[in-house]
């Protein structure tokens, strides 16, 4: 993968989407619109003068002006929920350097006021505090998402095995340890490659992106549908992704020699989310979450079209399989 290309895509698409969403009534406040425009401007200027480094420059601007403030604002909200108004105000004041906007200034002023005159709080210790509830929720999240943790661990261990076996850049090494090759599957009957290829990756970046996506998308779905159903969706979507690539290669629709990666399974999780939300579309926030899923799919397709090394066929096959599986396993409501 070309890291400059990935960062360029990330900076442009994420900033553009945020800018457009901020224009809608009820969308993010003015500060997001301004910083998104700044990121787009920096990226555009870098592309014009230094195209070979535009992704790194735009990605750096995205990290400083969009990613860090988003994390900081979430932390500020958590501190305020824990009634630590002094820390929330100090963090908000620091964030104003990267994230201008009257709304944030107003929040900082309000926290300063609460610091001097805190709101009335209950003395009933039988009611858990926000900090206790947050800590309990974090423990529950770790405890009830074993499938995600096991899948992450297996992928990391297999990647270490790749390194010991001779490296992820060697076509011969990947062939020997289980990369998906349509010819080997169809002609030589090596059907096990449909599964083993799902746990192989072409470098730290490839592995990191897939595991990060699994870490973000996986736990909420596993909590919603259960561990066994989640693991089933992940594996079957991956197998369907591999089988779809082989079938499309056999009929001549695509031309591939070797495919590796968990992204077919990851897109299966995205599809399962879509199926689950569609079955529960009358639940609160279901339509909004469906819109977010559609946005993820659109971004992924755009990225696939702009990156020749990526197998769009594997992603789409996994997505479709996951969608139907999500319809089947969607027994719980949100």
How do the strands and helices of this protein lay out in sequence?
Elements: H1 3-23, H2 30-49, H3 54-81, H4 85-95, H5 102-116, H6 130-143, H7 146-165, H8 171-177, H9 182-186, H10 193-196, H11 204-225, H12 227-250, H13 263-279, H14 286-306, H15 312-329
Total helical segments: 15
CATH architecture of the largest domain: Up-down Bundle
Structural class category: mainly alpha
Q: Globular, elongated, flat, extended or rod-shaped: what is the shape?
A: globular
The radius of gyration computed from the alpha-carbon positions, rounded to a whole number of angstroms, is 23 Å
Question: What summary fits the major beta sheet?
Answer: none
Approximately what portion of the residues adopt beta-strand conformation? Answer: under 5%
**Assembly type of the shown chains?**
single chain
Low-confidence stretches: 122-142
CATH homologous superfamily of the largest domain?
Rhomboid-like
What is the helical fraction, as a range of percent?
over 70%
CATH C-level label of the largest domain: Mainly Alpha
Order of helices and strands: HHHHHHHHHHHHHHH
How many beta-strand segments?
Answer: 0
CATH topology of the largest domain: the name is Rhomboid-like fold
Quick structural overview:
Helices cover 74% and strands 0% of the residues. With 334 residues, it is an all-alpha fold.
């Amino acid at each position: 993968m070309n890291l400059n290309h990935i960062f360029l895509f990330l900076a442009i698409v994420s900033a553009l989407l945020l800018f457009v969403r901020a224009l809608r009534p009820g969308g993010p406040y003015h500060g997001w619109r301004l910083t998104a425009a700044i990121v787009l401007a920096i990226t555009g200027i870098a592309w014009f003068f230094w195209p070979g480094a535009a992704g790194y420059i735009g990605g750096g601007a995205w990290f400083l002006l969009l990613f860090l403030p988003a994390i900081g604002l979430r932390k500020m909200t958590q501190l305020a929920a824990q009634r630590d108004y002094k820390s929330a105000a100090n963090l908000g004041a620091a964030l104003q350097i990267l994230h201008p906007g009257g709304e944030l200034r107003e929040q900082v002023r309000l926290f300063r006021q609460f610091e001097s005159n805190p709101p009335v709080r209950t003395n009933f210790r039988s009611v858990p505090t926000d900090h206790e509830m947050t800590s309990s929720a974090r423990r529950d999240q770790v405890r009830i998402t074993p499938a995600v943790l096991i899948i992450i661990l297996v992928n990391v261990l297999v990647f270490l095995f790749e390194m010991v076996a001779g490296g992820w850049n060697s076509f011969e090494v990947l062939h020997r340890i289980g990369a998906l090759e349509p010819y080997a599957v169809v002609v030589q009957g090596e059907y096990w490659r449909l599964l083993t290829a799902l746990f192989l990756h072409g470098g730290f970046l490839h592995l990191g992106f897939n595991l990060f996506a699994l870490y973000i998308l996986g736990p909420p779905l596993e909590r919603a549908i259960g561990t066994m159903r989640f693991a089933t969706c992940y594996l079957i979507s991956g197998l369907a992704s591999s089988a779809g690539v082989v079938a499309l290669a056999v009929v001549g629709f695509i031309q591939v020699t070797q495919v590796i990666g968990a992204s077919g399974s990851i897109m299966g999780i995205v599809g399962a989310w879509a199926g689950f939300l569609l079955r529960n579309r009358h639940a609160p926030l279901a339509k909004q979450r469906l819109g977010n899923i559609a946005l993820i799919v659109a971004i992924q397709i755009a990225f696939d079209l702009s990156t020749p090394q990526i197998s769009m066929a594997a992603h789409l096959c996994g997505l479709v399989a996951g969608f139907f599986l999500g319809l089947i396993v969607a027994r719980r409501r949100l």
